[in-house]
Amino acid sequence: MSSRADLARMIDNAKRVVVFTGAGVSTESGIPDFRSPGGVWSRMKPITFQEFVGSEAKRREAWTRAFTGAAGWDRGAPNAGHYAVARMIASGRAGAVITQNVDNLHQASGVPAEQVIELHGNASFAKCLVCEARHELEDLKAPFMDRGVIPTCRVCGELVKSAVVAFGQPMPEGPMQRAEEETLDCDLFLVLGSSLAVYPAAGFPLMAARNGAKLAIVNREPTEQDRFAHLVLQDEIGPVLSEIVPA
Length: 247
Ligand code: APR
Known about the structure:
Layout: H1 4-13, E1 17-21, H2 40-43, H3 49-54, H4 56-68, H5 80-90, E2 94-99, H6 105-108, E3 116-118, E4 121-128, E5 134-136, H7 137-147, E6 160-164, H8 173-185, E7 188-192, H9 203-210, E8 214-218, E9 231-233, H10 237-244
Parallel strand pairs: 1-2, 1-7, 2-3, 7-8, 8-9
Antiparallel strand pairs: 4-5, 4-6
Helix pairs in contact: 5-10, 8-9
This protein binds adenosine-5-diphosphoribose.
Adenosine-5-diphosphoribose binds next to loops.
């Protein structure tokens, strides 16, 4: 089994690290992940993009979840793991954070927004599905919670949806392109807190390894890609990173 010292050595020897995060980096902030016992998907079924567009009842359920914070993404502050990642970015050790998370905590921990590549969008605002106009959740919440008004676009009148990428929704082209560029440019791809079960996001660790980069995975549980990794550390992200990327 690899040790924290092995990971520290890999990071020290790397020229350019890409950090890839999943929900496991936010659990120490009190935000549940998806597939651990008690995780989000053990309490509710995902609402697919097709369901959201095709059913008013599903839209109502999706907005209720968003406005009541059912998934927990609207609370929680950055934890030691986020701040250690921010130190890796600030020191130039890591060039970017590719994240599957939608909780905005990498930005909140001080990583410049342009160095956070959000593959699954962001839960802190909404967008029109047609003209992509941005809508603030607080502007949409009262009409929905008080009068049941389902959000529509103030510009074009079409449906508005949380800026989180739902299952079945097209992946964001820009972030996917940038994630590929960063992945092919790194010599160490560091996965923090992901089961690596959801594609195309989970394709990036493999892409890095196939491109000759070292792949390191820090995750409490085994992941679907441990067999491709040069280092696997089944440990808690916050304590590990606090030790090897000290403040
Ligand atoms: N330290 C280390 N590992 C942790 C910690 C922690 N503090 N907390 C949780 N983990 C691990 C869990 O053991 C789990 O394997 O993080 C992993 C999180 O996996 P998932 O819950 O599957 O979350 P994620 O991989 O981010 O899911 C990917 O699936 O539902 C979609 O869009 C959603 O972005 C999400 C995607």
